[in-house]
Amino acid sequence: MIKIKNLSFSYPGTPKPILQNINLEIEAGDFLAIAGNNGCGKSTLCKTLNGLIPHFFAGDFTGKVEIGHMDTAKHSVGELAFQVGYVYQDFENQIVRPTVLDDASFACLNYAMEDYLEKGRRALFMTGLSNKEKDYVWQLSGGQKHLLALAGTAALSPDILILDEPVAQLDPLHARQIYDVLKDLNETYGKTIIVIEHHTEFIAEYCRHLVLMKEGKILWKLPAKEGLNRVEELLANNIFPPQITMAARCLMKRSGKEEDTFFPVTLAEGRRYFTGLVYHKMSQEKTKRGKNGSLIRIKNAGVEYRAVKGSGLKILDNFSLDIRGGEKIALIGNNGAGKSTVLKLITGLLKPRQGTVEVGGISTRDILAEDMAHNISLVYQNPEEMFVKDSIRADIEYAMKARKMENYKERTDNLLQMFCLEEYAHRDGRLLSGGQMRRASLAIGIALNPRILLLDEPTANLDIATRKEIIRTLDAMKEAVETTVIATHDMQLVSEWADRIIVLCNGRIIADGSKEEIFGNQHVIRSAGIEPPEIYSMGRELNQEARCFTVEEFIASFASQEDKADRRTGNTCHELNTIPAEGSLA
Predict the structure, then answer these.
(1) pTM strictly above 0.90
(2) Distance CA 257, CA 551 (A)
(3) Rounded distance, CA 28 to CA 192, Å?
(4) Are 152 and 163 in contact (CB under 8 A)?
(5) What distance in Å separates the CA atoms of residue 559 and residue 567, rounded to the nearest whole number?
(6) Of the spans 21-25, 275-279, 358-362, 570-574, which averages the highest pLDDT?
């Protein structure tokens, strides 16, 4: 189906090729994942498959890409659209029409197909959106919008569907829904599915093959289970294997065995593999809560977005929340629960329709949002919204120069170094990879040393190294930043970093407590569409009393009968010392 021969590509002005002598074949009907660290060329490679490279993005293109019998260099993007469909990281930009059916059928209408509505309806049926065809697109949840972008692509009936980071901005419930739809498209409709993915638990459960990339080259293509067992190579390339795989490997090493075997990569395989382990209850840390007085107080707030037709959409109604100084808070919940709206209320970007919002004792109604910027900073969910200049350096400098900070140049240099952005300093942020944009947006967000830092999905699209750097940065800023609030779907980040977890559902707080309290409450998990870290679920499968949020906690809590004595004497898996901090992984 897909043949790539000796492919190399360089963007204009880049010192070295982003793709270097790529050779790859992908069979028809495959479900393949492409993994690798941020900037290794994953998205660029996929853009060569639908003709955006070399027809739309200029650069030095050599080699050959064949889709079936079509040479992508000799066929237009429009012609290739009938063979290859692409859902991008910023999938909402692919939604261009006001209603669901209108958008799903738009591509077919654009090609003057008489049966465009029929094709749109079929695509909606394939993606599970048939009951939404008359809805307005702004009424959809994030997961439903992603499925609509997929439907609009699938309406042209391409044999190949490519999705770039399909679950990066979705809650666990909608993320699984996306992959279930992709599985059905693959198995029922025979589509070849290619995903760019960092989340190895989804690769383990859904994908047949895994490709690992590094510095514009393909290191290998292997069956997914075999690839996920190459732990050292994955870690070296900033891809974290499934937690279950890491736990099994560490238990084996602790026992002194060096068996040539496959480790489990899914919960189902883990249940069989870990049979016979003995659980030893570990002491739990006490919940840490802010000791300072109230810093942010939301009381009986209501937020309603205007609608083009009908009544407005209520996001928050009679909403109250108190945040104390010194707290590290995670806001979690499904897409559309109101997390981003709460962050915008705190910054004053949104004013409540009713009720009050006070920050540091000052009502947000009495002060302009820009006048609060020296004390509070919001890093947006879509990082490109943070870019207003034509280079990363200029974007980082912007707020500091506006406030006449004397050391802004030195501060900019430090931030570029901190977030590994030095080589991209003079590039337009909107032209960077998803992970690079995320790092740049964080550098912009903390440039003014805000007292309160608000982060909306800070780890989406990021590899291990960058997530780890973000966690280190947050820890390093704890003296300067009084309070940090993160809205996220990254449950490992929540488990490792947050002192307090607030769960939102339909604009209401349905739970507020420690990770033990939140993830131990099945009603809250079901209501909010969240999932605990995979290793936590594995521990509960083995023993209902287990509360293991990291691989290290799992290793400390479980042992086989023969090495139980070793565990009690403190003999642990030495490899855990080389594993990146799990709070930065997903």
Answers:
(1) no
(2) 19
(3) 6
(4) no
(5) 7
(6) 21-25
Q: Cβ–Cβ contacts within 10 Å for residue 366, how many?
A: 9
Cα-based distances in Å from 361 to 96, 411, 454, 580: 42, 30, 18, 40
Q: How far apart are CA 512 and CA 452, in angstroms?
A: 20
Whether 579 shows a pLDDT value over 70: the answer reads: no
304 and 313 in contact (C-beta within 8 Å)? yes
Residue-by-residue DSSP string for 50-102: TTHHHHTS-SEEEEEEEETTEETTTS-HHHHTTTEEEE-TTGGGG--SSBHHH
| Phi, psi for 111 (deg, rounded to 5) | -95, 10
When pLDDT is averaged across residues 106-126 and rounded to a whole number, the result is 95
Greatest extent of the chain over all pairs of C-alpha atoms, in Å: 74
β-pairing, 558-559 vs 483-487, is unpaired
Print burial letters for 6-23: b (CB count within 10 Å at least 16), e (below 16): ebbbbbeeeeebbbbebe
Contact (CB, 8 A) for 290 and 325: yes
Instruction: Please tell me the total number of residues recorded for the chain in this structure.
Output: 586
Q: What is the 3-state secondary structure (H, E, C) of 429-489?
A: HHHCCHHHHHHHHHHHHCCCCCCEEEEECCCCCCCHHHHHHHHHHHHHCCCCCCEEEEECC
Distances from the Cα of 141 to the Cαs of 36, 169, 174, 184, 332, in angstroms?
29, 11, 9, 21, 15
List b or e across 112-144, with b for residues whose CB sees 16 or more CB atoms inside 10 angstroms: ebeebbebbbbbbebbbbeebbebbbeebbbbb
- Give the percent of the chain with pLDDT over 70: 90
Specify whether the CB–CB gap between 197 and 38 falls below 8 A.
Answer: no
| CA–CA gap between residue 34 and residue 163 (Å, rounded) | 10
Burial profile 432-454: b = 16 or more Cβ within 10 angstroms, e = fewer:
bbbbbbbbbbbbbbbbbebbbbb
Asked if pLDDT for residue 318 goes beyond 50, the answer is yes
Q: For residue 332, how many other CB atoms are within 10 A of its CB?
A: 28
**Contact assessment for residue 464 and residue 581, using Cβ atoms and an 8 Å cutoff:** no
In a 3-state reduction of DSSP, which class is residue 10? strand
Q: Residue 118 has which token pair?
A: 């029929």
**Residue 455's closest CA among 388, 382, 381?**
381
Burial class of residue 51 (count of CB atoms within 10 Å of its CB; 0-12, 13-18, 19+): buried
| Structure tokens that stand for 381 in this block | 């969910």
The Cα–Cα gap between 21 and 247 comes to 36
- Region 425-447: mean pLDDT is 85
